[in-house]
Amino acid sequence: MTSQKVREQFLSFFKSKEHRIVPSAPMVIKDDPTLMFTNAGMNQFKEFFLGNSTPKHQRVADTQKCLRVSGKHNDLEEVGKDTYHHTMFEMLGNWSFGDYFKKEAITWAWELLTEVYGINKDRLYVSVFEGSDDADKLEMDKEAFDLWKAIVPEDRIIMGDKKDNFWEMGDQGPCGPCSEIHVDIRPDAERKKVIGASLINQDHPLVVEIWNLVFIQYNRKANGKLEDLPEKHIDTGMGFERLCMVLQGVHSNYDTDIFTPLIREIETITNKRYGKDQATDVAIRVVADHVRAVAFSIADGQLPSNTGAGYVIRRILRRAIRYGFTFLDTNKPFIHRLVNVLGEQMGTAFPELKKQHQLIENVIKEEEHSFLGTLEQGLVLLDSIIKSAKSKTIDGQKAFELYDTFGFPIDLTALILEEKGYDLDVEGFEKALQEQKDRSRSASEISKADWTVLMTDTEQEFVGYDMLEADIRLVKYRKVTSKKEGEQYQMVFNLTPFYAEGGGQVGDKGYLEAQNGDVIYIVDTKRENNEIVHFSESLPKEKSGIFKAVVDKKQRQRTAANHTATHLLHQALREILGDHVEQKGSAVHSKYLRFDFSHFSKVTTEQLREVENFVNARIEGQLPLQEQRSIPMKEALAEGAMALFGEKYGDTVRTVRFGQSIELCGGTHVKNTGDIWHFKIVSEGAVAAGIRRIEAITSDAVKDFYFENNRKLFEIKDLLGKSQDPVKAVTALQEENAQLKKQVESLLKDKAKNLKGDLLNEFEEVNGINFLAKKVDLDAGGMKDLAFEIGNTKENVFLLFGAEKEGKALLACYISKNLVGEKELNAGTIVRELGKYIQGGGGGQPFFATAGGKNPAGIQEALKEAKKYIK
Ligand code: SER
Known about the structure:
Blueprint lengths: L2 H14 L3 E2 L24 H5 L8 E9 L1 E2 L2 E2 L13 E10 L4 H15 L7 E6 L12 H8 L7 E4 L1 H4 E3 L4 E12 L3 H6 L13 E14 L5 E14 H8 L12 H11 L7 H22 L8 H20 L11 H8 L5 H4 L1 H31 L5 E2 L1 H11 L3 H10 L3 E2 L1 H19 L1 E3 L3 E2 L7 E2 L6 E14 L3 E8 L1 E2 L13 E4 L5 E10 L2 E6 L9 E6 L1 H24 L6 E6 L4 E6 L6 H16 L5 E7 H6 L13 E7 L2 E4 L14 E10 L2 E8 H22 L5 H35 L3 E3 L2 E7 L4 H14 L3 E9 L2 E8 L1 H6 L4 H8 L5 E5 L3 E6 L5 H7 L6
Parallel strand pairs: 1-2, 6-7, 12-13, 16-19, 32-33
Antiparallel strand pairs: 2-5, 3-4, 5-11, 6-9, 8-9, 9-10, 10-11, 14-17, 15-17, 17-18, 17-23, 18-22, 20-21, 20-23, 21-22, 24-25, 25-30, 26-27, 27-28, 29-30, 31-32, 33-34, 34-36, 35-36
């Protein structure tokens, strides 16, 4: 059965049980501070379980793209080593929100596995929660046990502890006991020898869990306590790749048709064979797995970067590059070449892969290039660490610097050291790593108290599209403490005019006025799950009355102008550059806007001007805002609104239209484009391969911009002399400058000639080599020219120059070519080593190399040391 068919049968089975089939949520999560990536099918339904929102359908099923590489569920380091863990995987799931419970979940799961998929019942085991006597004091799940007993013989029911049979999404949130279904696919002979029940949860590659049925009935609170949920729910998750392994009769997820096309392609590109050698196999699995995780993340709009989710993606990709580099002998980018195969294979179920193919390929290729560069540089540095080592054990702190500053992976360091017969001081490395972790953890640690709830049963309403002021009531509040922000309070109200950060737009600021006249400033507004949370530095003394909430009008107006301008900019770019342009990120502040988009070359000055004109024409056209607050997604798309990949949309959406620009958007906008006054681009550049960024300003900021530029022009005119035309005056200065440069160059040449004559007399003979180490008053180019001239005149030369230029130190080493061969002298190695005296580094050819550093005081020392190389 093909994987495509396995997926289809799952969905149609639950459709026949009256489930609504819904699309996978994006894998990268954007509006939940407790989670970076979707790590389970249930994430997108969290609010239904908690009772914070009401689902439209009480039974749903789907296949969800999941990524388990951070937080509570992190499998990254396992992936590749075994045959059944993945970073990205598909989770097939069915859900009941306060509808059916254990009985149906258990019976249907059994029916699907044994009757529809036809898995042999003798090979299936199930597990049941045995209860816990820790602080939670939970009872054994007798109900599940009895239900299973009616279906399977008792010796196939395994009792499991909290680790295996109590499922929690994270440190907080919905949870409950679970029953897992395991399958034993060992050959019959082995099954006879060792009974399957003894291998459950023992990491046996052929006795694996395939489905987890979670009976959600609690909420884990911030204080660690469990609270009963108002209703009971079902959350099931079946590992798609494992299921395919079972149904396709193979013994590894990587032997299913989900992975084999990728593996064949890796074999072709690298000229290695899968299934011949352990280390090669691990590396091929790592690459085949990781390219999926990375490609899907990029398709969801998450590019590799140095922070947050982007950093996790970068690390996954680098792990793949490193395995390729070390075990598949790939020192050129190759992973991007797999994107094609992946698209062909998964593109039907996940069209985003096909649509974004070019971008994904470019981004991966660029990352590969830059990290391979890092690896090469790291190898050179590691080499010099080894050369200067005083013992056979390499300092852990040094290895840590290599890892931390250059991103050189520690396991690679360890491997190379082992090959060369050196040890790594692992303890020293771990210590340095831990210290760094502690530093960054304490900087990002946030502690949140539990909410104090004043009103229950309220549905919060956002009224900020129409009003900037409203009378509101406090529903709940809590204190949060973080190193970055210090102590803050968070408040949720029954209704609010404050816009919560989202869709790239910043959150509103403003204040609350209590009836007794007290004023509380709101410093930021953010969305947490479905709630709008207001941040303040203090709490009102009297909490139960009515407050007047007032949004900072000036900031809101400027932000709205920037948001509307962002839409017009998007329209302009698609019109002028072409409709390959897609939004890849946007930030709308009160002072400026930033827009990232896919486009494969620099936007020319001419095009930028056209874009500005396009937007400004629409501002002058005074186009009114036409919005539809709640229309079916289908209708919005039919009207021409564009949905962004990686964005989560409900069944109904809001559309914002100005003339021909129409977007799905939850942000706040001007009532008329005339309110923007003017639009000005201030910068254009690249953010990643195939992604450009435009920064622009509108309204008051444009006035400030022109005012400031005008002031500068007047200052320049003053400097040039008032009567002069500044352009003519600057051109004249440039010409004069070029003349002077030429003169200086020729004077310097004369000086070098004289210097050469002097220096030739200063050489001393050491061991048959003409040696000179000397400080000179030249720049890098001057030293090079002089060194080569001397080398052409004199034989058997070892020459080291030191120079100080603009507070920096320079070294240049020249060695006659015959000495490089005969005496094994290498200018590159020598300057790199001497570089430490000037606190810098360098390199070059064996016969000529240079180093630069920040410590001119060390030049003399370096010159003094030079002689030791020929002694
Ligand atoms: N949430 C459970 C899991 O991820 C079942 O879907 O295993």
